[in-house]
Amino acid sequence: MEYRSYNLKSFVKHPLVADHLSAQEIEEIRVVAQVFPFKVNNYVIEELIDWENYRNDPIFRLTFPHREMLSEEDFQRVQRALNDPEELKRVVEEIRLKLNPHPAGQLQNIPEINGERLEGSQHKYRETILFFPKQGQTCHAYCTFCFRWPQFVGMEELKFASKEVQLLIDYVKAHPEITDLLFTGGDPLIMSTRLLRAYIEPLLDAAIPHLKNIRIGTKTLGFWPYRFLTDRDADDLLQLFREIREAGYHLAFMAHFNHYRELRTEAVREAVKRIRETGAIIRTQSPVLHHINDDPDIWATMWREQVALDMIPYYMFLARDTGAQHYFGVPLARAWEIYRGAISQVSGLARTARGPSMSATPGKVAIVGVSEIGGEKVFVLNMLQAKRPELVDRPFFAKYDPEALWLDDLQPAFSDKFIFE
Ligand SMILES: *Cc1c(COP(=O)(O)O)cnc(C)c1O
Ligand code: SF4
Q: 18-63, pLDDT tens digit by residue?
């Protein structure tokens, strides 16, 4: 399949879109997409979205902006400004700034070596360094809930983007505690294989003894499985995966799937098979999202089907406190019910998924459950990852709050502060 991409200007040109969306819906998308990024492609439109029932279709919700993603007031302000470019720019900028564009101290944890900052990296957890290749800072389509939305609308000039792999190699060499290197984005598999090779080959040549695992965080299986099938350099990409394996690394393909519907096309199944044949292990992760997957049966089905397809469920996240969190956010208490409802109906092979977890400033905080201790209803929390490794796996408590969406909404219980404070 030939890749065709659609944006705010061109989406109505796709016949399936034009045939189904009403003039009002198109107008609403036009308004909301002034604030949030919007991009979709022919695979998502033609093979994933069920146009007979698109209004409640999870993939439609996942990729097409919705009116309710903005407050009614902001929606109307943008709508009124549509024909006045200066005013529109001002209104959009103001709304974006209200939507917490920099959650979880993402611009912290930038490593340094020999007095130089590795702008394209983040080293938050001892064992794992994140690397953001400059040309991988976009995606095959955009998720409406994406926490990287500010960089796709140009609010952040790719502060993570990396120009040099050599600095990264020097840094990893100087840090024997690093075992994992995670390529992330955007989506690094938006890059041509030639470019990806330019990042990976020097790393393999450097043969850093303590570096054991190479991970690639990607949504390409969900949004463009033809990357592994019919793209011109698909075979070369799989060959690169083999070379990583042959050089002795564990290759972890961290696949982002939000709904079991993304697992059911022939293209995705064939792509998974081809990736697995290279020796790469596919692990899966997703946030739990209102309107898309806030139902234990969806998760149980998704995990079961992933295991059957030879993938390993890895993380369930909570939607970050940015962008349209009021629209996608699921309260912590409800997220735990969804997790429990899902995990309790699958076999142990699918219980490898951990969460629901918040990637917050101090670390990844999981909701272990809701309990009652000495007559007080509490959340039991646990850090799956922490900036300070000594805090990992030491359960702690917060006062129960059925509305809380994020760590900032919680108060410590039985103590005047949380363990990470
Ligand atoms: C999630 C995450 C990682 C990887 O953590 P694992 O638990 O090893 O998968 C690394 N760095 C950051 C900043 C993360 O959020
Ligand atoms: S694939 Fe990931 S980075 Fe890309 S739009 Fe979706 S959530 Fe954002």
A: 999 999 999 999 999 999 999 999 999 999 999 999 999 999 999 9
Q: How far is the CA of 393 from the centre of ligand 1 (A)?
A: 15
For residue 128, the CA-to-ligand 2 centroid distance in Å is 20
368 alpha carbon, distance to own chain's centre: 22
Contacts of 84 (CB under 8 A, 6+ apart): none
143 close to ligand 2 (CB < 6 Angstrom): yes
Residue in 216, 385, 387, 392 to alter for ligand 1 test, most ligand atoms within 8 A of Cβ: 385
Helical (H) or strand (E) element with 71: none
pLDDT at residue number 104: 65
Q: What pLDDT score was predicted for residue 89?
A: 96
Closest CA to 223 of 135, 311, 141: 141
For the cut 50, the answer to whether the pLDDT of residue 389 exceeds it is yes
| pLDDT tens column, 136-161 | 889 999 999 998 898 888 776 544 44
Q: Which of 138, 140, 143, 190 to mutate to test the pocket of ligand 2 (most atoms within 8 A of CB)?
A: 143
Indicate whether residue 140 lines ligand 2 (CB < 6 A).
no
Is 190:140 a contact under the CB 8 Å cutoff?
A: yes
Q: What is the pTM of this model?
A: 0.95
Binding site membership of 213 for ligand 1 (Cβ less than 6 Å): no
For ligand 2, is residue 219 a contact (CB within 6 Å)?
yes
* Residue 281 CA, distance from chain mean position: 18
The domains located in the chain, with CATH, are 5-98 (no CATH), 106-290 (3.20.20.70), 362-421 (no CATH)
Instruction: Report which protein residue has its CA nearest ligand 2's atom 8.
Output: 146
